[in-house]
């Protein structure tokens, strides 16, 4: 087989031009307001994640092999090199299925953008709050566009999109944070893109699923730092017909759309499409839990009153969360829809306290999960990526009552975005697990007042234990 060499890169270069040229003043006020809340949420998730078993394993292992003491590991008194702190901090953000998600782009954005960007503020103090916010927006805008280009088939094929797409968000945010020019930003993307990896089989219980976001953040950071030094990457990393990201990570040419990579720059802001979670489980489960919650408000019922629940959703919902539950650890519990439904029916909530190791094989949850059926609805699949979480839920009660509810968007989604008070409340509840209340309040105020911050290094300082 022969492959003609070509370096045409209108889309990779188009992304680089947007990232390099982005300024604070060109970002709409609503995007600035939204990203502060999104970032605050991610930092709360990371601080809660600091004391989780898998986070501590990474902390302990990397502290033994890395003697650098430059960048904070959030929620701890540890410091490591920038790449290793990014790896751990990204893992902590994504550590308990609490963090944001761009549903159409299929990406947890804060987990890949913030660890690398904040580490840059520690390596090179002096970045203003406005510059930090601008760099973050650059990162938040790019990864989701790559996801929209790749369509849901990318994750259906078995790639963990949070890891594969995440390198581009991290590289974009890091490149803007380092003020790289267009050419060097192209190389940052090209270096990061060739490190892209992540397999969805990790969802069935493996701790490594938690690490995918951290690894993507680290890879994007490497891309920007190496490019800054003159190291070169694949200049057409997204377009190349042989070995490019899109052709390699998709089954066929008609399964991706390159135009989505640069669509709407300056007029459509993908940052506004990032949703927040108010359940401690994968985003694909949230619409179903909302549907049950709404039906319970109409006619109260609990686990004992339910005979059967049928969920009808997209192919992605089927593949991602609709499998028969087998206890294989917290990851599998948080990603499995029947288990989460059973948990909601038994506890009336599905937040951090509901997911403990002793609950993974809880007989009551195991038995109740068996009355849940998840079916593919081709009509929902055909609606495309933006509606991939839409579900139609049927509840059959023992008294013969049948209830049905269709939900397109979950609480906290881009269509039903949460209030500032709800987001701050979630942040504070999670952050105080790692830091004193007074420090949590200082961090909250610094993030919400980011525009006035003279040096964004203060954020990193507030994230570490004093």
Topology at a glance:
Blueprint: H1 10-21, H2 29-49, H3 53-65, E1 71-72, E2 79-80, H4 82-93, E3 101-102, H5 110-123, H6 129-150, H7 153-156, H8 161-164, H9 166-177, H10 182-193, H11 208-228, H12 245-248, E4 274-275, H13 286-298, E5 306-313, H14 315-321, H15 330-335, H16 337-347, H17 363-369, E6 372-376, H18 378-381, E7 391-397, E8 402-407, H19 420-431, H20 437-448, H21 457-463
Parallel strand pairs: 5-6
Antiparallel strand pairs: 1-2, 3-4, 5-7, 7-8
Helix pairs in contact: 1-9, 1-10, 2-4, 2-19, 3-4, 4-5, 4-11, 5-6, 5-9, 5-11, 6-9, 9-10, 9-11, 10-11, 16-17, 19-20, 20-21
Describe this structure in words.
With 466 residues, the chain is α+β, with helices and mostly antiparallel strands. It folds into two domains: 10-278 and 443-463, 2-methylcitrate dehydratase PrpD (Orthogonal Bundle), CATH 1.10.4100.10; 283-407, 2-methylcitrate dehydratase PrpD (60s Ribosomal Protein L30, Chain: A), CATH 3.30.1330.120. It contains 21 helices and eight strands. It has helices spanning 10-21, 29-49, 53-65, 82-93, 110-123, 129-150, 153-156, 161-164, 166-177, 182-193, 208-228, 245-248, 286-298, 315-321, 330-335, 337-347, 363-369, 378-381, 420-431, 437-448, 457-463, and strands at residues 71-72, 79-80, 101-102, 274-275, 306-313, 372-376, 391-397, 402-407. The strands form three sheets. It has a four-stranded mixed beta sheet with strand order 6-5-7-8. A two-stranded antiparallel sheet has the order 1-2. Strands 3-4 form a two-stranded antiparallel ribbon. Strand 1 and strand 2 form a beta hairpin. Helix 16 packs across helix 17 (363-369) and helix 20 (437-448) packs antiparallel against helix 21 (457-463). It is globular. It starts with 9 loop residues before the first helix and ends with a helix.
């Amino acid at each position: 087989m022969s492959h003609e060499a070509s370096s045409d890169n209108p889309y990779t270069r188009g992304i680089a031009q947007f990232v390099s040229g982005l300024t604070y003043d060109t970002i709409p006020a609503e995007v600035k307001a939204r990203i502060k809340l999104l970032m605050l949420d991610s930092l709360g998730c990371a601080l809660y994640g600091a004391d989780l078993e898998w986070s501590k394993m990474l902390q302990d292992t990397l502290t033994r092999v890395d003697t650098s003491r430059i960048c904070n590991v959030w929620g701890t008194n540890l410091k490591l090199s920038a790449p290793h702190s990014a790896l751990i901090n990204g893992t902590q953000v994504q550590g308990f299925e609490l963090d944001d998600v761009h549903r159409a782009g299929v990406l947890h954005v804060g987990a890949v953008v913030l660890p690398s960007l904040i580490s840059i503020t520690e390596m090179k103090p002096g970045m203003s709050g406005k510059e930090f916010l601008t760099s973050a927006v650059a990162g938040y805008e790019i990864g989701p566009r790559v996801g929209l280009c790749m369509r849901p088939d990318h994750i259906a094929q078995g790639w963990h999109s949070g890891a594969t797409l995440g390198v581009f968000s991290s590289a974009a945010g890091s490149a803007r944070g380092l003020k790289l020019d267009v050419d060097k930003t192209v190389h940052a993307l090209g270096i990061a893109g060739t490190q892209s990896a992540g397999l969805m089989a990790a969802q069935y219980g493996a701790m490594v699923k938690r690490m995918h976001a951290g690894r993507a953040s680290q890879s994007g950071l490497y891309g920007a730092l190496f490019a800054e030094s003159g190291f070169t990457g694949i200049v057409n990393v997204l377009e190349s017909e042989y070995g490019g990201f899109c052709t390699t990570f998709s089954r066929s040419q008609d399964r991706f759309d390159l135009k989505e990579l640069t669509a709407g720059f300056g007029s459509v802001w993908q940052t506004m499409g990032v949703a927040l979670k108010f359940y401690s489980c994968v985003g694909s489960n949230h619409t179903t839990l909302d549907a049950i919650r709404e039906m319970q408000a109409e006619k109260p019922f609990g686990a004992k009153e339910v005979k059967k629940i049928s969920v009808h959703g997209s192919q992605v919902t089927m593949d991602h969360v609709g499998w028969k539950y087998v206890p294989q650890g917290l990851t599998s519990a948080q990603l499995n829809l029947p288990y989460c439904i059973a948990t909601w029916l038994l506890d009336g909530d599905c937040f951090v306290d509901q997911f403990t190791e002793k609950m993974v094989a809880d007989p009551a949850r195991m038995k109740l999960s068996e009355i849940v059926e998840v079916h593919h609805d081709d009509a929902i699949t055909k609606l495309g990526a933006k509606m991939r979480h839409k579900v139609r839920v049927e509840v059959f009660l023992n008294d013969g009552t049948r209830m049905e509810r269709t939900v397109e968007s979950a609480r906290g989604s881009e269509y039903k975005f949460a209030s500032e008070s709800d987001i701050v409340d979630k942040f504070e509840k999670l952050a105080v697990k790692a830091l004193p209340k007074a420090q949590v309040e200082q961090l909250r105020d610094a993030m919400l007042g980011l525009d006035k911050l003279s040096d964004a290094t203060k954020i990193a300082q507030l994230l570490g234990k004093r």
